[in-house]
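Limitations

Structures in this collection are predictions, not experimental determinations, and the ligand pose is part of the prediction. Treat each record accordingly. The example that follows, with adenosine monophosphate as the small molecule, is included so readers can see exactly what is and is not provided: the inputs are given verbatim, and the output is the predicted complex.
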Amino acid sequence: MKILVCISNVPDTTTKIAFSADNAAFNTAGVQFVINPYDEWYALVRALELKEAQGGNVTIIHVGAADSEATIRKGLAIGADDAVRIDAEPNDAFAVAEQIAAYANDKGFDLIMAGKETISYNGSMVGAMLAELMNLPYVSLATKLEVANGVATIEHDIDGGTEVLECALPLVLSANKGMAEQRIPNMKGIMSARTKPLTVVPAASADKLTSISNYTLSAGRVDCKYIDAAAPEQLIELLHTQAKVI
Amino acid sequence: MSVLIYTEIAKGKVKKSSLEAVNYGSRIAKQLNTTATAVVIGDADLADLGKAGATKVLKLKNDKLASLNGQYITAAIEQVATAENSSIIIFAHDFTGKEVAPRLAAKLKAGIVAGAVDNPTIAGDAFSVKKNVFSGKAVATYAITSAKKVISILPNSFPVELNGSAVEANDFAVNLDAVNSPIKVKEVKKVSGELNLPDAELVVSAGRGMKAPENWGMIEELAKELGAATACSRPVADMHWRPHHEHVGQTGVAIRPNLYIAIGISGAIQHLAGVNGSKTIVVINSDKDCPFFKSADYGIVGDAFEVVPKLIAAVKHFKANKN
Ligand SMILES: Cc1cc2nc3c(=O)[nH]c(=O)nc-3n(C[C@H](O)[C@H](O)[C@H](O)COP(=O)(O)OP(=O)(O)OC[C@H]3O[C@@H](n4cnc5c(N)ncnc54)[C@H](O)[C@@H]3O)c2cc1C
Ligand SMILES: Nc1ncnc2c1ncn2[C@@H]1O[C@H](COP(=O)(O)O)[C@@H](O)[C@H]1O
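Predicted complex:
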């Protein structure tokens, strides 16, 4: 089975977010970048489990500049066989999907996996767009994935519950929590990652349909109002009369 | 030109997130002096669509639409959008919205903003739309520069207004003969009886401070008395104290209820990322220096095992006196 896992490069979850003086750009100074957790813990690890059980090949693909190569190497250290970096700025979801589609179209992947969403821009879009551009079925927010005889059985989240689907390969899915558990790369993986193939592909032509003009930090909360632990009925009163939520 | 709004039915009613989308789309249609057309799959009392501002309602008809398959819905909406000459299409950023809105946007080469939290600023053909980024730590203003535009709106970000009047719903037959999805639905498991966490207006959540799964009785009782859904922190789900679908945060479900009560949760940044959109946050924690208090509106410093039973009694008392 040939599996393609789309990985994005995001600020580590504990990053303090800051912007340029004119608020037009994210300030990356001193920011530690990591593989987007949904792509790493869920999509990539499940892809590796399937490969280990059934044979095949796991390729990771990333659209981004050369400074994201440390993140790509981490994916190789976890166990991907090879990596592709498409040399384009990932600043619009549709353009990213077009880049990946242009690369993947004639490669015969059986399964293309994305994460549920990036924790930076929280779009949840690239997987669905990729499916449309490649004319493939798409399953969003998959929590379980099994593959047997060329057919995937997938559980995914829907309104008020879950749904079990069956779909002949090839297909695109986005991975959600539940699909696999985080894996920490071992020394052997880290060593071998250095010599695994990382192919850099020039950018294809793509359409940028949106752009970010401005950022603002979200307003924090005003000071917490403390209530005596012995008198929680005061909390209920405040929730009713002041916050008006009950 | 018109504005198209995709809506859905759940439990025999138009979904709340769909009504929010109709409100949103109708505000845009008013500003542009055009029709707000709500399209709906399924049958129910559709009066609310008109009340929420739709000036036209179309029921999409095709047997293939029974299972809410993204490939079919995308093709169906493309057909109505062409027939209605709609270049602006609105969704709720819910399960179907996440599956269909980007797919449709790619098909139409429409710029998309997923998870909008504010009405667009319209200047000629250019829209600016705000959405949360960095898991709620910041807000970004996106410019959509393409002629066609898709916007999905973050549920629970706008109050629902129903001050319009009902309009007649007409059938719209879509032709899906050319689309054949290989996806087959094998089983649907609805979480019955429980409140659906992403839709819940009140949420009671607990973390590792509860010490053991057998201590969740009081959490469930508090939730039940309030009519709230239950949630938990990630370690609690990882240790299988609680089911995975209750895990909220950066790597779990993101929620924005009116009230979030966090009990025995330290307030790690990854936890906050999934709950900081809540309107009101209450933190109950035995450690007065617990970081969650910095993100709380109301705090109680105390042992959950003493505070929660008192809180349950207080809720019961409040309910008894309200009626
Ligand atoms: C990439 C990444 C993603 C993550 N994603 C998530 C996520 O999505 N969601 C999430 O929740 N976490 C996530 N985490 C984990 C997160 O960093 C924290 O470890 C986790 O949220 C802590 O859970 P907790 O607050 O229940 O436990 P703890 O941090 O152990 O806190 C327990 C709290 O209970 C209090 N307490 C103890 N006894 C009592 C008592 N008797 N009464 C009242 N209070 C008491 C303590 O004072 C303490 O504040 C993620 C971590 C990483 C690295
Ligand atoms: N620059 C990128 N390169 C490769 N894959 C990406 C990139 N951006 C997003 N993705 C994939 O698309 C998923 C959803 O991203 P988004 O639509 O931006 O929330 C991510 O979890 C990744 O799997």
